[in-house]
């Protein structure tokens, strides 16, 4: 039987959740396993409240009986567990492959700690092979895409069938093909300087710990600057 490495990493991360915590629920196929495990622990008596980063995660959590609150109803969160599309050894991340980067960044930034969970294919020496998702306002999409291209990438507006893909916030996603990102922090500053950009998928200095599930069944833990 083959090992589910996403499940392995996600379930390890759920061990960090304690009674009374306010927990941020990530989005995607790895976060899915964390939410599932949390649901199990809640049914066994764990007392938490949670904030979801997408409609999909909210629906899953509700079905599992995890008590949910709106982001606006709490001051801050204790711990967020979320996946990533790429991560490097400094725990810089690319996120947003599932389109949830804006809420994910808001929730993770308002959490005392963030654990990123991933399978080993996500771990890279240099970010950028995965196209960087950038959430942009519909109003100026052509201009914003042209501005993104000046940063040295090929931006492609994400589609959902024949239509442009819309995020849970009603915005579009430009997937920016860079090949390699030499300095994630420089690029983040440039992206923030483009008015039509709502948010980008570079998470820098946000993750505290990475839990990586490996194909041989082991788990690698990488600590960020702040230890957990
Ligand atoms: O928008 C989606 C998120 O950033 C996901 O956490 C990311 O795309 C990783 O997803 P998965 O665990 O499915 O590879």
Automatic annotation (TrEMBL):
The entry's keywords: Isomerase
Coiled-coil boundaries: none
GO BP: any one term: pentose-phosphate shunt, non-oxidative branch
EC number: 5.3.1.6
Function: Catalyzes the reversible conversion of ribose-5-phosphate to ribulose 5-phosphate.
NCBIfam families linked to this entry: PRK00702.1 (NF001924), rpiA (TIGR00021)
Name by which UniProt lists this protein: Ribose-5-phosphate isomerase A
Organism per entry: Paenibacillus wynnii
UniProt gene name: rpiA
